[in-house]
């Protein structure tokens, strides 16, 4: 996915440990909405780790 850094992609791996997150990502048909959702989840995960 364009616009994601290698670090972002590493956080995505953690997000996709959840079956709910996988389902939401795969069933969202609008590419831009899916990307916004993923970036928001990564941002939230990143802030909870620091």
Number of domains: 1
Write down the overall mean pLDDT: 94
| Beta strands, count | 0
Helix and strand element order = HHH
Describe this structure as you would to a colleague.
- The chain is an all-alpha fold and 50 residues long.
- It has one domain.
- It is 76% helix and 0% strand.
- The chain contains three helices and no strands.
- Helix 1 crosses helix 3 (31-49).
List the helices and strands and how they pair.
Elements: H1 6-15, H2 19-27, H3 31-49
Helix pairs in contact: 1-3
How would you describe this structure in keywords?
single chain, 50 residues, 3 helices, globular
Give a nutshell description of this structure.
The protein is 76% helix and 0% strand.
């Amino acid at each position: 996915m364009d616009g994601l850094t290698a670090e972002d992609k590493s956080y995505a791996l953690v997000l996709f440990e959840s079956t709910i997150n996988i389902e939401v990502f795969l069933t969202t048909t609008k590419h831009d909405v899916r990307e916004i959702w993923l970036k928001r989840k990564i941002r939230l995960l990143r802030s909870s780790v620091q």
